[in-house]
Design goal:
The complex is a heterodimer of chains A (429) and B (251). Chain A is of the alpha/beta class. Chain A contains nine helices and 19 strands. Chain A has one domain. In chain A, the strands form two sheets. Chain A has a ten-stranded mixed beta sheet, with helices on one face. Chain A has a nine-stranded mixed beta sheet with strand order 3-4-6-8-10-12-14-16-18. In chain A, a hairpin with a 2-residue loop joins strand 1 and strand 2. The radius of gyration of chain A is 21 Å and the shape is globular. In chain B, helix 2 packs across helix 3 and helix 6 runs parallel beside helix 7. The two termini of chain B are 30 Å apart. In chain B, strand 11 and strand 12 form a beta hairpin. In chain B, the strands form three sheets. A six-stranded mixed beta sheet of chain B has the order 6-9-10-3-11-12, sandwiched between helices. Chain B has a domain of 175 residues: P-loop containing nucleotide triphosphate hydrolases (Rossmann fold), CATH 3.40.50.300. Chain B has 251 residues and is of the alpha/beta class. Classes of the chains: A alpha/beta (429), B alpha/beta (251). At the A-B interface, helix 7 and helix 8 of A face helix 2, strand 7 and helix 3 of B. Chain A: Pfam families: SUFBD_core, SufBD_N. Chain A: This is Fe-S cluster assembly protein SufD.
């Protein structure tokens, strides 16, 4: 891809009011290097190939557009589930609202505490995985994040931890503009589940770096906030060791603009990565973008991308997914499916599935479809007495099911179904 | 039970008249069969009665217990007691068979102002009914008709009929795609539902099915009309001689 010349004025305008947080030498070094990368790349512009389907303007401009607060009357998600809660209010860690961070098998610290230490394991992850993710495509907003993130959490996982860590992002200010950065290191044979819930801010830039060692496993379920006017750009950067597992699922309902990037590098043999998403969007101010880049750089690895979007009343969905299979990544099994269900003629789905394969013994499949509700199935349901609106909802949930099936934990999956049913019910009247 | 008077139907998209004045009355407790050559309008009749889109009624009426079916939505017709066993049951990936049936049963009950069936009660009833149709637990759990064999799909239709307990059942070529054993099983399922309050309209090409589901009245349909009505012997005549003689006779 031809590189355009960055516009230093745009970068300068964005950085004018940002202050680089203090930290120890390694942390400051990582931040300064990220800033240098950002200045070299420039901020995303509409003419950038990678931003062809999503306008970056409001994510890039110095002042974040405001976002009204959403009053959730559904009650907390997974209320009965034993979780370790870590609460951020408009991007600031709230110790009082959070649980005690000591948990067997986990070392959890606030980002600021970790980066102020002269020696810390996070040194090998913070900005490191993000930098690796910049090789094929520029991701300037992630570099901006590394340079200026004001808070976040770092977690080192040393054992198989069954109790999930739930990052809860509360949005209380209509003008909050938040940059959070989390680092997770899962040691050999260790395992954890990370949950992320909530809208976080009027404008949210988040990076999550996850280093998964050999035979380790990372499970991730995320529910993005339903505040209609919120904006978010998020980046997951992960590297997988031998026989390790990465599984991530995201549910998105509402939000004026969401761009979820996921950059996965399979560097150990026999590793397994799955990234899935379900999204329901209503209205012409709904724009949701899933951008995935998976690099196979080891033998006999499997990767799955499963994305489903239900769009109506002029909503827009975007999918950009790429599988890159390097020369020696033989026996790669790559699967990618992106599908949109358009409930009217005004909505649109823009998809760019890509495969780039240099190995000769691989199985990669990809598919992308856009369609309407199956009238035959609808009539079949109606002929059995199911009213049209209810039948449509049933088919919408059925369509999304393939993505939801990627969640291993039944309780977590049930929570997703409940949220979706609630969303459909609210729109029924 | 079902009273069809001078029903005229054309395709919505094109100017093609399919039904040209169908008259037919099915009394409670009776089984009527409709036979007829391909393209005579048999399936169209079943679709129009059940409320499928794509057709335009240009004249006539269809009453179910005195209520005009043609003014109702498909789901209202179902709640009023009409059931169509599809010739080609539809596969619905992602919707479990059990969820589908329970949603349907309760939607109909709700529409009729009755109490919904509890999960426990539903389970008890469906297990018993599934057993007689040799439908195992796995088939109940799987998505609706997905990966079902032809015979399994038809058995699943009869199971739905048994669960919904309609007043008027239309069976559209339920014998198509069935081997001898499957046809016997399906027919037994239908016969078990025969009672004095329920009417049946069985659409078929072949006498075979009528050996198992014995009709009271047999109609021959051709070119959008019922051209001849008689007893079970009419079906045997068709089986032996084809339609040519009958059509020549009424022409």
């Amino acid at each position: 891809m031809a590189k355009r010349k960055p516009n230093p004025d745009v970068v300068a305008a964005r950085l004018a009011d940002l202050t680089m947080p203090e930290g120890s030498a390694w942390a400051l070094g990582a931040r300064q290097s990220a800033r240098a990368r950002l200045e070299q790349m420039g901020l995303p512009e509409r003419r950038d190939e990678y931003w062809k389907f999503t306008r970056p303007d409001t994510l890039v401009q110095a002042d974040a557009p405001t976002a009204a607060l959403f009053h959730n009357d559904e009650g907390p998600l997974w209320d009965d589930m034993d979780r370790l809660k870590v609460v951020f209010v408009d991007g600031v860690f709230d110790a009082d609202a959070s649980d005690d961070l000591s948990q067997e098998g986990l070392e959890i610290e606030r980002l600021g505490d970790a980066t102020s230490k002269d020696i810390h394991w996070a040194k090998d992850i913070y900005g490191v995985l993000e930098t690796r993710g910049q090789t094929a495509v520029d991701r300037p907003l992630a570099a901006l994040n590394t340079a200026f993130a004001t808070d976040g959490i770092v977690i080192r996982v040393t054992g198989k931890v069954s109790k999930p860590v739930n990052l809860i992002y509360l949005h209380k200010s209509e003008t909050s503009d938040v940059i959070l950065h989390h680092c997770i290191k899962i040691e050999e044979g260790a395992e954890m589940t990370l949950l992320e819930t909530g809208p976080a801010a009027a404008r949210f830039n988040k990076v999550l770096e996850v280093e998964i060692a050999d035979k380790a496993a990372f499970h991730h379920v995320r529910v993005q906030g339903r505040d209609h006017e919120r904006r978010a750009v998020t980046g997951i950067f992960t590297r997988l060791g031998t026989e390790s597992t990465f599984k991530s699922f995201t549910l998105t309902m509402n939000g004026v603009l969401t761009r979820n990037e996921c950059v996965i590098e399979l560097t150990g043999d026999d590793a397994n990565a799955t990234v899935a998403g379900a999204c329901v969007g209503d209205g012409d101010d709904f724009h949701h973008d899933d951008t995935v880049f998976i690099t196979h750089d080891a033998v006999n690895c499997e990767s799955r991308q499963v994305f489903k979007k239900v769009l109506r009343n002029g909503a827009t969905g975007v999918f950009q997914g790429k599988i890159l299979v390097k020369k020696d990544a033989q026996k790669t099994d790559g699967y990618q499916i992106s599908q949109a269900l358009l409930l009217d003629d005004d909505s649109q789905f823009l998809a760019k599935p890509e495969l780039e394969i240099y190995a000769d013994d691989v199985a990669c499949s990809h598919g992308s479809t856009t369609g309407a509700i199956d009238e035959t199935a609808l009539f079949y349901l109606q002929s059995r007495g199911v009213p049209k609106a209810e039948a449509t909802d049933l088919l919408v949930l059925a369509f999304l099911a393939e993505a939801l099936e990627e969640i291993d934990n039944e309780t977590l999956a049930e929570g997703m179904y409940e949220r979706l049913e609630g969303w459909l019910a609210r729109r029924a009247s | 039970m079902l009273e069809i008077k001078d029903l005229h139907v054309k395709l919505e998209e094109e100017d093609k008249q399919i039904l040209k004045g169908v008259n037919l009355t099915v009394e409670p407790g009776k089984v009527h069969a409709i036979m007829g050559p391909n393209g005579s309008g048999k399936s169209t009749l079943s679709y129009v009665l059940s409320g499928k889109g794509g057709y335009e009624v240009t004249g006539g009426s269809a009453l179910l217990e005195g209520e005009e079916l043609l003014d109702m939505e498909a789901e209202e017709r179902a709640a009023a007691g009409l059931f169509l066993a599809f010739q080609y049951p539809v596969e619905i990936p992602g919707v479990g068979n059990m969820t589908f049936l329970r949603t349907a049963v309760n939607a109909q009950r709700k529409a009729r102002g009755e109490d919904e069936m509890s999960a426990g009660e539903f389970l008890k009833v469906i297990r018993a009914k599934a057993k007689t149709l040799k439908i195992d637990a796995d088939m109940l759990k799987r998505p609706v008709n997905v990966g079902f064999s032809g015979g399994e799909k038809k058995r699943n239709e009869i199971l739905q009929m048994a669960m919904l307990e309609p007043k008027m059942c239309i069976l559209d070529e339920t014998d198509s795609g069935l081997d001898v054993d499957a046809m016997k099983l399906v027919s037994e399922g239908v016969n078990a539902l025969r009672d004095e309050g329920r009417g049946f309209l069985v659409i078929t090409h072949y006498q075979r099915l009528l050996d198992h589901i014995k009709p009271d009245v047999v109609h021959i349909m051709a070119d959008g009309r019922i051209v001849k009505t008689g007893g079970p012997e009419l079906a045997i005549e068709v089986e032996n001689n084809g339609y040519a003689d009958i059509l020549a006779e009424v022409a």
